[in-house]
Amino acid sequence: MKDEPFDPGLQPERTSLAWQRTAISLAVGSLVYARIEVQSLGVWAWSFALIGAAVGIFVGVRANARYRYAHRSLKAGVVRLADGLLPAIVAAVVFGAAAIAIAVTLARLLG
């Protein structure tokens, strides 16, 4: 028997899809960045790409667990918020990627 969605507007499902898109964007964006910067950064570009891809996979897995938790809570009639770990991880990764991009740009301009 298939589990029916909690909300007829499918808000938890839309949120889950948004997290999946975020995870894919992190992974693919990291790989594209490495492909672009491989000439100037060499092996470091691929190291950053592998870290970004791993984080993207982790975010995808964690987003799926987050959706299941929210779905179970809503079906049980208990409103519990998910922890803030996933948004904090994404924010830290984006901040780190921006810091790397700024450092690379400054190194090019000054060197």
Automatic annotation (TrEMBL):
It is a multi-pass membrane protein. The chain crosses the membrane at residues 43-63, 84-110. Its main location: membrane. Pfam families: DUF202. The keyword Transmembrane helix applies. Residues 7-72 form the DUF202 domain. Keywords: Membrane, Transmembrane, Transmembrane helix. GO terms for cellular component: endomembrane system. The keyword Transmembrane applies. It is found in: Endomembrane system. It comes from the Bacteria. This is DUF202 domain-containing protein.
